[in-house]
Write a structure and sequence with these properties.
Elements lengths: L2 E12 L2 E3 L5 E5 H7 L6 E6 L5 E9 L6 E4 L11 E10 L1 H6 L3 E3 L11
């Protein structure tokens, strides 16, 4: 049996853009992706703290150190610049792996989406 466990989380980042005229996905600053162990194309769940919306999408790598968090395509109707979101990725693990695994949780500065030193 495999369990779906939290692998990575970007906690309380701020949406910087919403691009309705893009085919879909979420663009995330490459520095934030690396800090959280996220990969381009990886499936993520995105939760909007402002309005309760939740989506599942995939990651596009954004410019390093730009602070970009951009919801693309239809999600742009549900997430707007200034909204605070949580971005989560999950991994399949055996119960034994899950007991030992510690997810990467990154809490950047909420106003700039940059890593706090």
């Amino acid at each position: 049996m495999l369990l779906q466990m939290l692998k990575s989380k970007l906690h309380c980042v701020t949406v910087t853009e919403a691009n309705l005229n893009y085919m879909g996905s979420i663009t995330i600053d490459e520095t934030l992706m690396e800090a959280a162990g996220l990969l381009e194309g990886e499936m993520v769940h995105v939760v909007n703290n402002n309005n309760g919306e939740r989506i599942v999408t995939y990651i596009i790598k954004g410019e390093r150190d730009s602070g970009v968090i951009c919801l693309n395509g239809a999600a742009a109707r549900k997430f707007q610049p200034g909204d605070v979101v949580i971005i989560m990725a999950y991994a399949s693990m055996t119960p034994e792996e899950a007991r030992e695994f510690k997810p990467k949780v990154v809490i950047p500065d909420r106003h700039t989406n940059r890593l706090v030193k």
